[in-house]
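yo

u said u wanted the structure for the complex thing, so here. seqs first:
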Amino acid sequence: MQQKRILIKDTDLKKDRTRDFYTAFLTEIQDKKLEEKVQLVRVSDIGIYGKGLTVRVLPENFLYCDVETGDISRIVSESVVEGRPIEALLHKPDDKQLRLVLRNCGLVDPESIDDYIKHDGYQAIATILEKMTPEKVIEEMKISELRGRGGAGFPTWLKWKLTRAVEADQKYVICNGDEGDPGAYMDRSVLEGDPHSVIEGMMIAAYVIGATKGFFYIRAEYPLAIERVNRAVTQAHEYGLLGENILGSSFKLDIEIRLGAGAFVCGEETALISSVEGKRGYPRPRPPYPSVKGLWGKPTVINNVETLANIPLIMLKGGKWFSSIGTEKSKGSKVFALTGKVKNSGLIEVPMGTTLKEIVFEIGGGGIAGKKVKAVQTGGPSGGVIPEDFINAPVGYESLQKLGSIMGSGGMIVMNEDDCMVDIAKFYLRFCVDESCGKCAPCRIGGTQLLHLLEKISEGKGEIEDLDRLRRISRAMQKAALCGLGQTAPNPVLSTLRYFEDEYKAHIVEKKCPAGRCAGLFHFSIIEEKCKRCGLCFRNCPVQAVSGNRDQGYLIFEEKCINCGRCFEVCKFEAVSRG
Amino acid sequence: MDREKLKADIKEIVEEWKTKEGNLIMILHKIENRYGYVPREVSFEISKLLDVPLARIYEVITFYNYFKLEPPGKHTVAVCMGTACYLKGGAELLSELEHILGVKEDETTKDGLFHLEIVRCLGCCGLAPVIKIDGKVFGELKKNDIIDILSHYTKQNGQMVSGVGSEVSGKP
Amino acid sequence: MKKLTKDDLQAIKQEELKKETANWIKVGLSTCGIAAGAQDIYDFLVEEVKKRNLGVSIQRCGCAGMCYAEPLIEVKVEGMPKVFYGKVNKETAMKIVEKHIGGKILVNDHIYDIRSSQ
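structre next:
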């Protein structure tokens, strides 16, 4: 008998009995005297969640879910010894992920151009230079229906076509690597893990529009990404893949790197252009669009990292292949940074049309600590929350917009019952207020006013009319702000209001924060029955709001209390209540 | 700072970038990397070498969060306030740091050892909540881990962390 | 260095394919991996493999996406399935060298993904 392996993992979300089953399997194996031929392994993750004890038998790759102790003997004798599957327990593994953009991440050595070439790197641009006109490339991109992955979803082919059509002595291509959404790191991962595919994407874009100069604009907070891109650009120059007469053609392109310096607004394309020029990152009204008047007034294409990483693959495999993946209006795949209150945080890539539920529960393994998932946030500070009721929604540009959020660049944050929606809206809004460049009044003043209202509500000083004020200011900002930052800044407020108005009302009417996050609404008191009169709260209170002594017990005076929560934290007997 | 040495250093940095378009931010990055902040005399020097008004340089420095006008502490403690870190307790880490160090965001301890700052997102959301001290990231932190991490740095410098911030206080 | 032509690209590809080894370990060295200590593991593995003369090539790669399991390494040894080990500290790395590479036995409690092809 060939070497067999049994992998086991208890996928129950509440308790892990892997070790108990391990002993049971081991006994069975020893009884059958199979120790030499069978190896039993406890694994940490088996790719399946909430399906009880899960067992995989190798090399046959039988996968069994919801295995009971009574099944163990059968699995060993039938599947391991005889190599037959047990139909009743069999589970069909179904890989939800599809790695296109991340095809090389975790595979190639990002510091070696040869390794990239080994995995068909620079083949797409070579083929294009040999036998495709720019028009033909645009045609192929049109068939692929690739849309910008930075968030807005503008068709990439059209952007290229418009820029190509403008006559100019100089054109530019810029890679937007200013990944500002806090909680998202798709672009960092691609730049760190596969920088050459982004360079190749830029080369194709430059060839199509007729640019001879390209810029990477990367956040300064990503030192490793900058280092890897720098190295990759140098290597490409050394190989003559950048510079003059690339691959024996007349095509030439130089690429340089420019760094961001910690300003979220620079992700907006006109502000980004200003920043690449070495100036303050102020946005300006569009039109004229960068395709007409961009960097130093010249026609410019700005594509996001993920968009560019898609391009060599589309050119290698064909637009038709790409458009066969995804939904009617959103083609291909999308990378998400799945984080927050989810078991497996990480970077995932799925075909468009995959549901949020599949992402959170089947890939992400569901919520943490057995707590109920309350909402999923997409699109960062420009996006919105999608409540659990709509978790069957498929990902796509239009489908998420319909729900009041956006696809965004790919941040996906899972929230649970411990997260307060007023607090979340406040968090995002504070971010946008901090990052507002101050140029236009709707964003500068509107944002601050919204934040004041939210602060008021979270401190328990809100009035019911404030909800209407929030809506009115939000709508004004959406209509009147100059750039994307200001226009989308109210989205987190509007979407939390749309789905969680009850929570706002609880703060305003009942003066309560259901999730227990808003410190301004806490009332601390000592539960006499639980109190052991140890005096820890008394000694730790910074404002002497706790009075009493070890004989008579302690009391908290609300007038003095500053809601710092110190007493609540230090109490070892859960005798301080917060609510 | 030795004035002649400083001038030579700046000249070297500026020369490398002088002919490139949109060079100001890149030059400031190099300066910041070398000195930890952008000293006023350096700005004067850049203004002369590049032939741009000083106001243009300050306009850029003050717009971007990354550039500092004051020297930071010996160690920069950056608390991540990305969404994932915030949800998992980043704010509690910040208040614990403020409590222990006795400074607020963007301040340096009196002894010049620690500079406390907030960063947007370090891109390590899988390890949330995280803080970064100089180049090193510490992940999956609990409030109680902070004191141990800090004392590691104070020991290097032969000092003790006070624990309540009586010995260290904020700079005006 | 001379400028590449399309044929040179092919030549490099073939050359690189020839260099492929049967036994290798890939260490995810992106920001999240490094933050979790992957650089130390990389250095440790390089050292250990050299010391024991194991004939395993240690390679660097980007993020495989499983950030919750960093540091993450992928191990391929002839006659064994391809395995992703996660939350690898030095102790686990040592076990992987001794058991997985040395004894062709999978290491308990650290496998995050396994590819069945043997």
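Chain B touches chain A at residues 20-26, 28-29, 59-60, 63-67, 81-88, 119-126, 128, 135 (CB under 8 Å). Residues 3-63 of chain B form one domain.
cya
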